[in-house]
Protein: WD40 repeat domain-containing protein
Organism: Parapedobacter defluvii
Amino acid sequence: MNTLRIHKAGTLSGHQNPIFTVENGATASTVYTGGNDKGVVEWNLEKMAFERIIYPVQFSVYALHLLSGTPLLAVGTRDGMGRIVHTETRELIAKLEHHRRPVFSIKSFKTKPELILASEDGTVSVWNTHTFSLLYHFKVSDQTVRTIAISSDENWVAFGAKDGKVKLYSALDYSFIEELPAHTLPITSLCFSPDGRYLLTGGRDAKLNILNTADFSIVSTFTPHLFTVYAIKYHPFLPVFATASRDKSIKIWSADDFRLLRVISLERGFDSHRLSVNDIAWNTYKNQLISVGDDKQAIVWDITN
């Protein structure tokens, strides 16, 4: 992995305001983005171009999540609404009306028909993905719940809260397991490793914690960025993961020993983001990483070894 090669494949321009979230599409060569403007956008990675507006919105989009094995996209917005949009017909399938504050994170399971929304109101709602009826809702924190991670075996659900703590729940019945002190400032990103051995947490304190899921003890803690760690994403098959930050950089790390492999930033000679990098997504179409940020750009990176 010391020979990791990075090349900028292209820039997807069209958003008029900061982009907050990016999600892989229903087809391999498609990605969706949303942010502080009037629509969820579909991009074509084969043409490296704008494809269409999937769904118009009146409020900022903070979360996008494609339901596994379906053409259905869940959209979380500033008004507290969750919307289910059919990505082929652009039809609004359902409104998930429960939260009164912004929805910041959305995740679903592969083994059961359930969708989880987390909100600034400190609560979580769970919805049936067949009927889109509300199944459960419960309070996780007195403050914002910013991020959700589901373990690869789908036994655990972790929530990252504004109080700097990880709240760990059983994915079977949503019973509370334990609270894990993690950061001195709000948690802004969570990710389980694909092999299930680790839970990675990133925060506004610019720290990255690596927890052993055998007992959720901290294996390592370090400062990967100068400012907030907004995203942590593992590569689908290479033993690496990427982090994105408010410090305008993306960093690629070894999944085996957590060594820093490459830095993507203006300072390192890349034609990269000029403002905060808010989210990233690995896409398997051409083994690419897509990053989005406050500079209104979505950038596509070829990353190979």
